[in-house]
Design a protein that fits this description.
alpha/beta, TIM Barrel, Rossmann fold, Aminopeptidase, 31 helices, 33 strands, hydrolase activity, hydrolyzing O-glycosyl compounds, carbohydrate metabolism, Glycoside hydrolase family 3 N-terminal domain-containing protein, glycosidase, glycoprotein
């Protein structure tokens, strides 16, 4: 047992015995083999992970675990083994026994019930069953937040996309497990909710969110679980790549484990590494080296799932790390104390050698069966039934045939921890992979039989694949009176999405024998991720079951035939935003009329400024939003009082043809009329308008032309959080925002360049020149085509057209004159300056100051400000930073020559290194978060 005073008994003086306790290892087969026996007897391994490949039934599992514990006792282990298992329910169960082990909904299915109490009950029942067979450690709860709903393989294994909701259900599940006597292991820190995948097993899945972004969303459930007594945490084998963090494997990183998890989140429980047998790690680092790195990072338990050679390599690697001084003995002792303390909470030799077994499971069976039925019945969700197709008997005559179309899917993944994320993504059927849960095809066949038993008419059933709608499908559709289509993660298996839409289209264009158009009823059921068609109103009847286990589909049969009234609802933000959308007012949104609305907009801007928010609007007038540029299509909208002409809301939109970008440049609502859906109405009209633009490829929040809002204002943390949540509810993926800002340098009259910077420009093999006019357009446009950011092309055109008040500084290669980099410069009389309200403010301040001091204005620019804008560096350039500094330095000098006393950089990447700009004297004016998304996202969300 764990020592209370921190000192370890003499039996733990042996280094091999200490190190063995710090490993969790698995093996192949349903019987104890010589390899796992040797790991326990000779290497003192203290934790065993069992997966679906080890488990045949509840009775065999009890026998197997008892044998493992007996081997450990006879080998002289001072404490029992930890026996760990994945049992997430839904599609991820390691132990399945149709007689003694009950099936419960997935984490998202439980969240769909809306009952935290039910989550606690389900977790407790799951843990009671595992405890009865000898398991003492459950690898759960899953605490990931789906910050990317569409393409993440974590799917229904987590409670959803709302961090607070994931926290609440995660904590209740954790408490249910602990109440039944198991210790817990949260996963997958820091997040599997938004991963980017490479093309092979050797590519590590990547988290691209910054630590700040993770802290605002993904880390919330982990933080709350820690505060409520989480026993252990599994750190994932994912990479992190964002500003301030560049980590190849999270579980090997001191910045993630010791810094973020231990110090920032104050976690002092057992930290478990992801399985070090993953191909990405073995390929890039090696298991032995990875084991040492994991221990140095702060992990207490190293996981190796099945390969005996890898397991020996890990054991030897850790011992070598201690012997050569890379890992201290005190570090080993620290982890050992944590592991022993956890063991003391959940097991003893008396408990380990006397599991309840089948007799205990038999006593639980009636109550757990009832709980399983209640949980599934409460989770099933009817998202839409626009045409009132349910229940089926009211639309389908007994002599009509019902067609069931199901996808070909592989068996449900039974053990998540033994599979790489890449394997979980692969949904093509693989008969070589076994699972303890019935395969999808078998369950779907049984579902078809259950439908047939429920009705006297005939049920036609066939599958579909990536080959699409075949003649056999068309023939069966033509015969059937109604069609049911099942989908399983169609956002990751796009053939399912296309097939469903195609069948829906066929059914909508059916004709009766008399030649009249007769739409054939179609019911779509998502049997895994509920997001397949959650926002696609063209699918008029849409049901979600959250998994395709037999119990889930039994509940579906009851719903289809009217024996069950669905009470489940989509968890997270989609459900909430739909409810908000249904309940909110719909304001009349009108197109902007300059003559009619200018005065009203000026009054609205004054009202917003008086509220003390949005410093960005300080120098903005009604005309600041109007570009009047032939290369940019603009359309603006208002919500107004038609009687008084007062504006309650204003929205500006722009379409940049050069990049195919549709931009929402601003949404401004009277502060006294917030929360009345004015902003929602303006946003919806803006999106519909931009979708009509020919060639639109992507959408963006924030615009550099005009330079008012570069994105979501980020200066005030409270307001920033509110706006991020508001836009997220509208469908924008704010988790992938990009920080941008505007910076200012003044006064130029006393400014001197940093020492050595000017001199360094003369040592680089680059020529700089300043050009004006359209004769240079061809070579410059050819150069800036490498930049796809909206507004850049338009600013360069304005600069070429605005001589002598604007020009372009070029950096060229001496030998051939190729342009390596460029930047636009302009003064306050340039057309560009008209779209920079902040610069206009500085001009007014400077002129007022001169009038006060009775000074004459001797400069061509009025002595105010100028700007440096839109640097474009060729992607082939190696010395990016040096070239950028050179262009900006020359830009500053040129603006100062025009008589300006301030220079503004109007759109700077906020995740870059500010040291060079700070060293040059720049200060930050306003900060924003620029958000972009593909136009296809909005097309999917629009009603048919």
């Amino acid at each position: 047992m764990a020592p209370k005073d921190g000192a370890l008994p003499p039996i733990w003086d042996n280094l091999d015995r200490q190190m063995g306790q710090l490993f969790m290892m698995g093996f192949d087969g349903t019987e104890v083999d010589n390899q796992i026996r040797s790991l326990i007897e000779d290497y003192h391994v203290g934790s065993i992970i069992l997966t679906a490949k080890n488990l045949k039934s509840a009775e065999e599992t009890t026998r197997l675990i008892l044998e493992l514990q007996t081997i450990a006792r006879d080998a002289g282990h001072p404490v029992p083994l930890m026996i760990a298992l994945d049992q997430e329910n839904g599609g991820v169960n390691s132990l399945y026994d149709e007689i003694y082990i009950r099936q419960f909904p997935s984490a998202m299915g439980v969240a769909a019930t809306g009952s935290k109490r039910l989550a606690h009950e389900v977790a407790s029942a799951t843990a009671q069953e595992l405890r009865a067979v000898g398991v003492n450690w459950i690898l759960g709860p899953v605490l990931d937040v789906l910050t990317n709903l569409r393409s993440q393989p974590i799917g229904v294994r987590t409670s959803g996309d709302d961090p607070q909701e994931v926290s609440q259900y995660g904590v209740q599940s954790m408490k249910g497990y602990q109440e039944a006597g198991l210790v817990t292991c949260g996963k997958h820190f820091p997040s599997y909710g938004n991963l980017e995948f490479g093309g092979s097993q050797a590519d590590v899945p990547v988290i691209t969110e910054s630590l700040e972004q993770l802290s605002l969303s993904a880390l919330i459930p982990f933080r709350n679980a820690i505060a409520n007594g989480l026993d252990a945490m599994m750190v994932g084998g994912v990479a992190l790549s964002s500003a301030g963090v560049n980590v190849m494997h999270a579980c090997l990183s001191e910045q993630v484990v010791d810094g973020l998890l231990r110090k920032d989140l104050k976690f002092d429980g057992v930290v478990v590494s992801e399985c070090l047998e993953m191909e990405a790690l073995t390929h890039n680092i090696g298991v032995g080296g990875g084991t040492v790195m994991a221990m140095k990072a702060g992990c207490d338990t190293i996981l190796l799932c099945r390969s005996y050679p890898f397991q020996l390599e890990a054991l030897n690697g850790l011992k070598l790390g201690v012997e050569n001084g890379m890992i201290s003995r005190s570090r080993i002792t620290q982890s050992l104390q944590r592991v022993l303390a956890m063991k003391a909470r959940c097991t003893s030799w008396e408990q380990a050698l006397n599991p309840g077994g089948i007799s205990t499971l038999t006593k639980m069976q009636p109550s757990h069966t009832s709980l399983s039925t209640r949980a599934y019945d409460s989770s099933i969700t009817l998202v839409r039934d626009t045409n009132n197709l349910l229940p089926l008997p009211q639309i389908l005559d007994p002599d009509e045939e019902l067609l069931l179309l199901t996808p070909l899917v592989k068996p449900l993944p039974a053990s998540a921890v033994s599979r790489s994320m890449q394997n979980i993504m692969n949904t093509s059927p693989d008969p070589e992979k076994s699972s303890s849960i019935t395969s999808g095809e078998s369950v779907f066949r049984e579902f078809g039989r259950a439908l047939a038993r429920q009705r006297s008419g005939r049920v036609l059933h066939t599958s579909y694949t990536s080959t699409g709608v075949r003649p056999i499908h068309e023939s069966l559709i033509d015969r059937a009176g109604a069609v049911i289509i099942l989908t399983a993660d169609s956002n990751r298996n796009l053939y399912q999405h296309g097939f469903t839409k195609h069948v829906s289209m066929i059914c909508k264009s059916q004709f009766s024998q008399t030649g009249e158009r007769r739409e054939k009823p179609v019911i779509v059921v998502a049997v895994s991720s509920p997001y397949d068609f959650a926002i696609d109103a063209s699918i008029s009847t849409y049901i979600c079951t959250y998994d395709f286990t037999e119990t889930a589909l039994q509940a579906l049969v009851k719903l289809l035939y009217g024996e069950l009234s669905p009470t489940g609802s989509l968890p997270g933000t989609i459900s909430r935003s739909q409810k908000i959308h249904q309940s909110r007012q719909h304001w009349l949104v009108e197109a902007w009329n300059e003559e009619r609305d200018s005065k009203g907009l000026e009054a609205l801007l004054d009202t917003v400024r008086e509220s003390g928010a949005h410093a960005e609007l300080t120098s903005v007038s009604a005309h600041s939003f109007l570009l009047r540029n032939d290369d940019i299509e603009e359309a603006h909208f208002v919500v107004r009082n038609s009687t008084t002409q007062a504006l309650y809301g204003f929205c500006s939109t722009y379409f940049f043809r050069s990049t195919g970008t549709g931009v929402i440049g601003s949404i401004i609502v009277d502060p006294t009329r917030r929360k009345l859906s004015i902003g929602h109405s303006l946003h919806n009209r803006a999106i519909r308008s931009l979708l009509q633009r020919k060639g639109v490829k992507r959408f963006q929040l924030g615009s550099r032309l005009p330079n008012i809002y570069l994105g979501i204002p980020a200066g005030n943390p409270v307001e920033r959080k509110r706006l991020r949540q508001w836009f997220a509810q509208l469908g924008w993926n704010t988790a992938l925002s990009r920080p941008v800002c505007s910076v200012l340098l003044r006064p130029l009259s006393s400014w001197t360049p940093p020492e050595g910077l000017a001199k360094s420009l003369h040592t680089t093999d680059v020529d700089y020149d300043l050009v004006y006019g359209w004769e240079y357009a061809e070579s410059i446009f050819d150069h800036i085509k490498t930049n796809s950011r909206q507004g850049v092309m338009e600013i360069y055109k304005m600069a070429l057209n605005g001589a002598p008040h604007s020009g372009i500084i070029r950096a060229k290669r001496p030998e051939d004159g190729a342009i390596l980099g460029s930047v636009v410069i302009y003064n306050s009389q340039s057309a560009i300056a008209e779209y920079i309200p902040t610069l206009q403010k500085k001009d007014k301040e400077k002129n007022k100051e001169k009038e006060t001091n009775n000074q004459s204005n001797g400069s061509g620019s009025g002595g105010g400000g100028g700007g440096v804008s839109s640097p474009v560096i060729s992607p082939m350039v190696g010395e990016y930073a040096t070239l950028m500094q050179g262009l900006i330095l020359l830009g500053i000098k040129q603006v100062r020559k025009s008589g300006a006393d301030a220079v503004m950089l109007d759109c700077v990447d906020g995740d870059g290194n500010f040291d060079s700009l700070t060293a040059m004297g720049f200060t930050v004016l306003h900060t924003f978060e620029e958000v972009t998304c593909d136009a296809a996202t909005w097309k999917l969300m629009q009603p048919a």
